[in-house]
Specification:
The protein has two domains: 213 residues, 2-enoyl-CoA Hydratase, Chain A, domain 1 (Alpha-Beta Complex); 34 residues, no CATH class. It is globular, with a radius of gyration of 22 Å. Helices cover 47% and strands 14% of the residues. The protein is of the alpha/beta class. α5 packs parallel to α7. Strands 3-4-5-6-7-8-9 form a seven-stranded mixed β-sheet, with helices on both faces. A hairpin with a 2-residue loop joins β4 and β5. The structure holds zinc ion (ZN). The site of zinc ion (ZN) has 8 residues, from loops.
Length: 334
Amino acid sequence: MNWLTNFVRPKLQALVRKRNGADNLWEKCPGCGQMIFHRELEQNLRVCAACDRHMQLPPGERLVSLFGEAAYERLELPQVVVDPLKFRDEKRYTDRLRDNRSKTGEEEAAVVATGELGGNPVVVVVQNFAFMGGSMGLAVGEAMMVAADAAVERRTPLIVFSAAGGARMQEGILSLMQMPRTTIAVSQVREAGLPYIVVLTDPTTGGVTASYAMLGDVQLAEPSALIGFAGQRVIENTIGETLPEGFQRAEYLLDHGMLDMVVHRHEMRDTLVRIVDLLGNRDRREEAVLLPALTETTETTETAETAEVVEPGAEAETLPERTAAAAGDEGADE
Ligand SMILES: [Zn+2]
């Protein structure tokens, strides 16, 4: 048996993989079924030219789309405890990790990098759905902590591209603990008065939606991205109702006030450059507020509006009052 599994099987797998290589030059669009040549798809940032479907973008390509080749630096992430529960389903968790590492060429489901957007430095986290469904385990929690620390230390905005099926069940309760942990990471950024921007990509669900993915000062999403906590079928079975069309899709969430903008992938970089410039640059923001008459261009009008919507300072001022009032009410009840 050992000879079969250790020698024959890898040889066969290698043979099959090689044959698949030729097929992999063409990819089928899950939206319209069109076959697209891989180079064309890459050039188009993995957006289908026929139906505009936004397919999942690997972290490397995402970083290049934001910063250009070699104009960013990946931050090293600390090692985490491997397989703390000695988990096994059909496969050992350690084997699954190894397979995903060789499949994606990445160490874990999240990547942290720094670079400049329109001259302003930023820290970016990109989640990788191809790596175990982007699931949030210890390593993703660690990535969020590293990113938040880097943003605070360098006084830059933090941008997260989320993509996840939720928490990593192979790490049990430890993966659920990453929900409060990443929430603390986000609040560190907020306390430092720095912008936190979330870009929800297809799909963002489960514990990730229930923590850092919905806490942005500005919430963006890619077109048609699936965003939700529980799956549609689970909700339908629970409430015994048929859900409306487009439920849990980016456009539906935008219509219902859960998002600020749905942004096409081809316009994502420019949109982020604009937002970071408005929020990240305190001097410019003050200038825009103080001198609206002198700089009356469409650009500054937009500036003032956006700055008003997500002014982090204003929120910080009103929050303590509210808390104090709430505390006072409780006292009165007793
Ligand atoms: Zn298509």
